[in-house]
Design a protein that fits this description.
By secondary structure, the chain is mainly β. About 5% of the residues lie in helices and about 35% in strands. It has a 4-stranded antiparallel sheet with strand order 3-5-8-7, with no helix packed on it. The chain has a 4-stranded mixed sheet with strand order 4-10-9-6, with no helix packed on it. Strand 1 and strand 2 form a beta hairpin. The radius of gyration is 37 Å and the shape is elongated.
């Protein structure tokens, strides 16, 4: 068995990562093997889109959004998944305008939405796979307004309680407006900036009062006083005058008032 060295000269790669395969076949039997040669890239493929959701007009037409990519649009795979199969193909065209700069434009053209209260949506995915089978992609939600240029039908809290009582699933396109009441540490209002610095105590768990002690009585900054302290050796005129260090006191533990 002899060892041989095969050389595969490569051209300078100005594009993305690429790969080539060589099939080696035996002259004496049916043995064969494939050798892959990978070449690094001068630049890495990039595609970035700042928006996770794009809202277009109900009247249809073209919508242009900024996008960053260095990949030619002809090499990008576009995948569109409509929310409702019976209301599909309302996206007429989608393309990225190529340019020398990575700052490019994503142009989306849609048909008009004839529904007065129901918007429509689709999930759009843009991806590219290089020669090393490494993929870069972005995904966003495309939402089209209604014919009245709204995102649904606005309802009141009374209608909401009447229609969706008993944990009924909300499947309609409805809009419910209100005011978020929260404090600065409530994660349920993460997107609503709270500018106040005032701290309010919860009715079910008031702040614990601060406790200080003196020589004979333990006091609390609250509406009640702690019981009198007890002495391990009650002081008298005799023992206090002769040896003041031989006696001491111990305050009883203060049990704070509990609240329901």
């Amino acid at each position: 068995m002899r060892r041989r060295t095969e050389r595969a000269p490569c051209e300078f790669n100005e594009g993305f990562k690429r790969k080539a395969g060589f099939v080696l076949c035996s002259d004496v039997d049916a043995r064969r093997d494939t050798v892959y040669v990978k070449q690094k890239a001068l630049v890495d493929a990039k595609i970035e889109f700042a928006n996770s959701s794009v809202i277009v007009a109900g009247a249809g037409g073209e919508n242009v959004s900024p996008i960053e990519t260095n990949i030619p649009f002809s090499e990008i795979t576009v995948d569109i998944e409509y929310a409702k199969a019976d209301n599909a193909d309302w996206i007429e065209s989608l393309e990225i305008v190529d340019s020398e700069s990575e700052n490019r434009s994503l142009a989306i053209t849609t048909e008009a939405n004839a529904a007065d209260e129901i918007p429509r949506s689709a999930t759009v995915s843009l991806s590219f796979t290089d020669g090393w089978d490494e993929t870069v992609s972005v995904e966003f939600n495309l939402l089209q307004r209604t014919a009245k240029e709204t995102l649904g039908r606005q309802i009141t809290f009374e209608e909401f309680r009447r229609t969706y009582a008993m944990n009924k699933k909300v499947e309609d396109y409805v809009i419910l407006e209100g005011i978020v009441v929260s404090n600065t540490k409530n994660h349920n209002a993460g997107e609503n900036t709270q500018s106040t610095t005032a701290n309010t105590a919860s009715p079910s768990r008031p702040p614990r009062p601060k406790t200080t002690s003196s020589n004979s009585t333990t006091t609390c900054r609250s509406s009640f006083r702690a019981p009198r302290a007890t002495w391990s050796r009650p002081p008298t005129a005799m023992n206090c005058a002769t040896s003041p260090r031989r006696w001491s006191f111990r305050a009883l533990r203060v049990r704070h008032r509990t609240f329901p």
